[in-house]
Every structure is written in structure tokens, then in C-alpha cells.
């Protein structure tokens, strides 16, 4: 088991060899942050992601992704305003082996959470709360729905 974990960690670390120092531009519309922008500014490859995250924490975003897993999380179960289930989401073009974002979903959306499963494509609206590192980025989600994955455009 330890060898598998070590192998995964090595792949993760060495797959992120290109580092950047990309700051959040002053001209950026922080009310419409895309996943691609967030990943560029706060991804593990950016050596100033902590500084960038200070500008983005608390912002509300609307993103889409594919469910990697849905499971009860004891840490969230104790937070009464949230569903005890956490949705882990793999985002488009993430390059990650695992999920990129964990969603803590408010209890009003619990009925929807119970219908979701791995592989479902979802649209969610939430507030950026915690910067990921070795773990997922965490959002507190107020709106969530299953949707259709966009079809890939055919190359001419």
C-alpha cells in the first residue's frame, strides 16, 4: 500500500515540473472566474498561488465538471449546514490523476446530492473556500444540477 502511495506521489510531483509565477491581473473580472483561470492562478504549478488565493477566496463561481466520487465525509458531517456527502469533481483538462475540486453542498441541495454518481456531469455554483495543494480545492456549493456534457467539436 505504501509503495502505491509513493508511486502516485512521485507521478504527481514530477508531472508538475513546469512552474509559473502568474499573478492575478488587476484587470481580471473576479466576478466571472473560469476554472482555467483559477487553475492558472492557484494551481500547484504556480509558486505564488497562496498570494493569488487571497484575492479569490470568498468569490462565487459557476463551473462544470465530472463527478469523481460521492462519499460521506466525517469532517463535513459535523457541519450542520452541509450535506454529509462530499462531491469530488474532476475538471476539464485538469491534468490531475484524481479529483480537482471537493464540493461541500448546503443541506437544501441534499436531495440532488443523493441522486448523483461517479461519471455524472454537473453544473455547480459555489464559493471558493480553501486552496488545494496535495488535496482538492474546496468550494461551498449553493446550487447544483446534473447536466449534459458538451459534445466534442469535430475537427475539419
Q: Quick recap of the structure?
A:
The protein is an alpha+beta fold and 156 residues long. The protein contains five helices and five strands; from the N terminus they run αααβαββαββ.
Q: Strand portion, in percent?
A: 25-35%
CATH architecture, by name, is Beta Barrel
What fold name goes in the CATH topology slot? OB fold (Dihydrolipoamide Acetyltransferase, E2P)
CATH superfamily: Nucleic acid-binding proteins
What is the 3D shape? Answer: globular
Helix and strand sequence: HHHEHEEHEE
Folded structure, characterized:
- This protein has a single domain (30-146), classed as OB fold (Dihydrolipoamide Acetyltransferase, E2P) (Beta Barrel).
- It has five helices and five strands, in the order αααβαββαββ.
- The chain has helices at residues 2-15, 35-42, 49-56, 74-77, 110-113; strands at residues 60-72, 82-90, 101-106, 121-130, 137-146.
- The longest helix has 14 residues, at 2-15.
- The chain is globular and about 40 Å long.
- The termini are far apart.
- The model has no long low-confidence stretch (mean pLDDT 86).
SSE map:
Elements: H1 2-15, H2 35-42, H3 49-56, E1 60-72, H4 74-77, E2 82-90, E3 101-106, H5 110-113, E4 121-130, E5 137-146
Parallel strand pairs: 3-5
Antiparallel strand pairs: 1-2, 1-4, 2-3, 4-5
Amino acid at each position: 500500500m505504501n509503495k502505491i502511495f509513493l508511486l502516485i506521489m512521485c507521478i504527481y510531483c514530477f508531472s508538475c515540473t513546469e512552474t509559473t509565477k502568474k499573478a492575478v491581473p488587476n484587470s481580471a473580472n473576479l466576478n466571472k472566474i473560469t476554472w482555467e483561470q483559477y487553475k492558472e492562478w492557484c494551481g500547484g504549478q504556480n509558486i505564488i498561488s497562496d498570494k493569488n488565493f487571497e484575492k479569490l477566496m470568498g468569490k462565487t463561481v459557476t463551473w462544470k465538471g465530472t463527478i469523481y466520487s460521492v462519499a460521506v465525509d466525517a469532517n463535513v458531517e459535523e457541519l450542520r449546514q452541509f450535506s454529509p456527502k462530499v462531491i469530488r469533481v474532476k475538471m476539464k483538462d485538469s491534468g490531475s490523476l484524481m479529483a480537482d475540486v471537493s464540493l461541500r453542498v448546503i443541506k437544501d441541495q441534499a436531495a440532488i446530492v443523493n441522486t448523483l454518481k461517479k461519471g455524472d456531469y454537473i453544473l455547480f455554483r459555489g464559493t471558493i473556500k480553501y486552496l488545494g495543494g496535495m488535496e482538492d480545492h474546496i468550494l461551498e456549493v449553493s446550487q447544483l444540477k446534473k447536466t449534459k456534457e458538451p459534445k466534442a467539436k469535430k475537427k475539419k
